[in-house]
Amino acid sequence: MKRNCLLCNESFAGRADKKFCSDQCRNAFNNQNKKVHEQFIANVNKTLRKNRMILHQLGPVGKSTVRREYLDKMGFDFQFFTHSYTTKNNNTYKFCYEYGYLEIEQDKILIVIWQDYMRTGFKAV
Ligand SMILES: [Zn+2]
Fold it and tell me: Could you tell me the distance, in angstroms and rounded to a whole number, from the CA of residue 54 to the centre of ligand 1?
């Protein structure tokens, strides 16, 4: 059975599960892919760090309430957080590392700092 190499597109013969014409192409392809996923991780980390810095700047010493628009203006990305904590009252705080927030009203955000007791409710995202 003839197939084309995933990297260089040359046709080659071999086992049905073979995807590359050579070890060289396989290694090069894997390195490329690694770079893509490392880049993805780096981008997510960058967004999370930025979110964390914004929460740190707006609520540096524990509980504080801010308007959602301040977070928006500073470029906070609500899609990205590291983990969550759900209270008995079913409020789910979203954290960016040790800083967390809860949307308490339509336009208000409560900023908190991670506490050790929250670990029981730890949920990896
Ligand atoms: Zn090849």
Answer: 47
Mean of per-residue pLDDT scores for the chain: 90
Strand partners, 67: 108
CA of 30 to the centre of ligand 1 (A): 12
CA distance 72 to 15: 54
User: Distance of CA 122 to CAs 60, 88, 110, 116, Å?
Assistant: 22, 13, 19, 10
Total number of domains in the chain: 1
**pTM (two decimals):** 0.71
Q: Which domain holds residue 52?
A: 20-124
pLDDT in the model for residue 34 = 82
Within-domain flag for 111: yes
